[in-house]
Design goal:
The N and C termini lie far apart (40 Å). The protein has a seven-stranded mixed β-sheet. It has a single domain (2-193), classed as Rossmann fold, CATH 3.40.50. The chain contains seven helices and seven strands, in the order E-H-E-E-E-H-E-E-H-E-H-H-H-H. The chain has helices at 21-32, 68-79, 112-121, 141-146, 151-167, 169-174, 177-188; strands spanning 2-6, 39-41, 44-51, 54-61, 86-92, 100-104, 126-131.
Length: 200
């Protein structure tokens, strides 16, 4: 059993915010693998399905980013999951747009969603970091993450990484994270083609 979690903010106005890349990925997985409609559970939205014999649960916390851990810990307790069965998709300012890094455990990197998760379940879960780039100055960060992707981004690197993540999701489920990162990097092409941050 695996719990795949997207981090984001629940209101419709936030749907295409850079901070919501985790929600976008989970929605894409649900669409591509024909998961049933999400339903309200565990202070979030949950959908469940079988994929190649694996029991996969998708969760989008509805608590807002800063309290994501409240939803996740409820789901983990109900399904009796260890942190090593949990995969969290989220935005990362320190990675160039379209870059993906996956690891088990680690710090929060100043990410409020991860801080909440660590308070509730500790640090030993899988992190799937999706780069959104840094705006350049600290005072611009909040506006950067809470503004929408530009149309160029949505139709460019964002769409590419959503497709790559779903096409090769079986590698994540199998634990072959190095191969998944390589596949995504190959799909994204040279970094300089996707590393430009659109001005808000």
């Amino acid at each position: 059993m695996h719990l795949l979690i997207g981090l984001g903010n629940p209101e419709l106005k936030h749907r295409y915010n850079r901070h919501n890349i985790g929600f976008l990925i989970v929605d894409k997985i649900a669409q591509e693998f024909q998961f049933p409609p999400f339903r309200n559970r565990f202070k979030g939205l949950l959908s469940e399905n079988l994929m190649n014999g694996s029991n996969i649960k998708l969760l989008k916390p509805s608590t807002y980013m800063n309290n994501s851990g409240e939803s996740i810990v409820q789901a983990m307790r109900f399904f009796k999951l260890d942190p090593s069965q949990v995969f969290v998709f989220y935005d990362d300012l320190d990675l160039s747009p379209g870059k993906c890094r996956i690891r088990l455990g680690g710090g929060t990197g100043g990410h409020n969603g991860l801080r909440s998760i660590e308070r509730h379940i500790g640090p030993d879960y899988w992190r799937v970091r999706i780069g959104i780039g840094h705006p350049g100055r600290k005072e611009l960060v909040l506006a950067h993450v809470l503004n929408d992707f530009s149309e160029q981004e949505k139709n460019g690197w964002v769409e590419k990484i959503l497709i790559a993540m779903t096409e090769h999701l079986n590698l994540l489920i199998k634990g072959d994270t190095n191969s998944l990162m390589s596949k995504i990097a190959s799909t994204m092409g040279p970094l300089n083609e996707v590393s430009r941050v659109s001005k808000d």
